[in-house]
Design a protein that fits this description.
Blueprint lengths: L1 H23 L2 E5 L10 H16 L4 E5 L9 H9 L4 E4 L5 H10 L4 E5 L8 E6 L1 H15 L4 E6 L4 H17 L4 E6 L6 H13 L4 E5 L4 H9 L2 E4 L12 E7 L2 H13 L6 E4 L6 E3 L8 H16 L9 E2 L5 E3 L7 H5 L15
Parallel strand pairs: 1-2, 1-3, 3-4, 4-5, 5-11, 6-7, 6-8, 8-9, 9-10
Antiparallel strand pairs: 10-12, 13-14
Helix pairs in contact: 2-9, 3-4, 5-6, 5-10, 7-8
């Protein structure tokens, strides 16, 4: 009888031990501005990163995602609720989460926060971003060569430095191969609005644009380009499935290596607040294959620019460059500092239109 009791006690102890271990598994939350189950785009690329973390660490961690979470003040309550549910680490994956993430970082000092595309850090909050503008250079070179109307339509989300940098980088690259190039920019004031993005694409094409560039999250502009027989570039993901004839190339975001490295640091106890801004050299931004419709010489020209940026021999913002109002910015041979790029709030000379305030 004593052996049976001992066996039973051991079983009970083992069950409690397993429960304790299960409770100790770190919980990691990923916060998204749009649906996670879309095939391509901004949020699906982050979701691929989350799945990579779960696959890499297995039962060492527990991950979950929260989709369609509003940005700005409206998102603060959602982030608080996530924190209250006992998550140990949280990735907030959009610029508009920066302010509420800071608030959460102060309210929950034991929680680790990784905030995407922002520029503020605290003791328990890191910032991380991709140099999307580096990928825009090849797009500008291709667009400048491929347009017949000399008009490029640009569908932009919010007038923040990240988006303005991309517009300027694309324009400068396009102007370097085509001095007659013109950009028409339509502001969405949204990252994810399929009907508005479709309408903007149709408007730009009706106004003469025969190449579309976007800094929004859905494939609607690509679909319109395919339907109406113009060219376009994918954003955040390779969108060729939605525009097999329209897509010239795309920038694709690769978050997985960063997410795995940061979770590993958290598990190891070596996590520190850092600022990461990776680009072509770290493969955080990737260039989708060039379309066969692009002449070989243009493909070579774009590929050369990509390789020179990757190796550090080319900076997308190298003077002489003047601001839109004609005032000087960068002298000949001078390159923009990261500080200048992170706070960029102006168009370069040659771009018409205004930046909404």
């Amino acid at each position: 009888m004593r052996s049976k009791i001992s066996f039973f006690a051991a079983m009970v102890f083992a069950m409690f031990a397993q429960a304790a271990v299960a409770q100790d598994v770190p919980k990691i939350a990923f916060v998204y501005i749009s649906p996670a189950d879309d095939a391509i785009g901004w949020t699906p690329e982050h979701e691929r990163g989350r799945k990579a973390v779960q696959a890499y660490f297995g039962d060492q961690v527990e991950t979950a995602f929260f989709e369609n979470v509003p940005e700005g003040p409206e998102g603060l309550d959602a982030l608080r609720q996530i924190a209250d549910e006992g998550y140990d680490m949280m990735f907030t994956t959009s610029f508009g989460y920066m302010s509420p993430s800071i608030q959460i970082a102060f309210e929950y000092p034991d929680m680790i926060i990784e905030q995407a595309t922002g520029y503020v850090r605290t003791k328990n909050m890191s910032s991380y971003n991709i140099r999307f503008y580096e990928g825009r250079v090849s797009q500008g070179i291709i667009a400048g060569n491929m347009t017949k109307t000399n008009k490029v339509g640009y569908i932009a989300s919010f007038p923040i430095p990240e988006v303005i940098r991309g517009i300027n980088a694309t324009f400068l690259a396009a102007r370097s191969v085509n001095p007659d190039i013109e950009f028409e920019i339509v502001w969405m004031n949204s990252w994810y609005n399929p009907p508005a993005e479709e309408a903007a694409a149709r408007q730009l094409i009706a106004n003469g644009a025969d190449v579309l560039v976007q800094h929004t999250d859905t494939p609607e502009p690509m679909k319109v380009a395919e339907e109406l027989g113009v060219f376009a570039f994918g954003q955040a993901s390779d969108m060729v499935a939605f525009g097999p004839n329209a897509q010239l190339s795309a920038t694709a975001n690769n978050w997985s290596p960063y997410y795995i490295a940061r979770v590993q640091a958290f598990l190891d106890g070596t996590w520190e607040s850092t600022e990461t801004w990776g680009g072509l050299d770290t493969e955080m931004v990737e260039i989708a294959p060039f379309s066969d419709r692009i002449p070989l010489r243009v493909q070579e020209q774009a590929a050369d620019a990509v390789e020179r940026i990757r190796s550090g021999r080319l900076h997308p913002f190298t003077g002489p460059i003047r601001k839109q109002d004609g005032t000087g910015w960068l002298a000949a041979g001078e390159t923009a500092s990261d500080s200048d790029l992170l706070t960029m709030g102006f168009f370069v000379e040659g771009i018409t239109g205004i930046i909404p305030r």
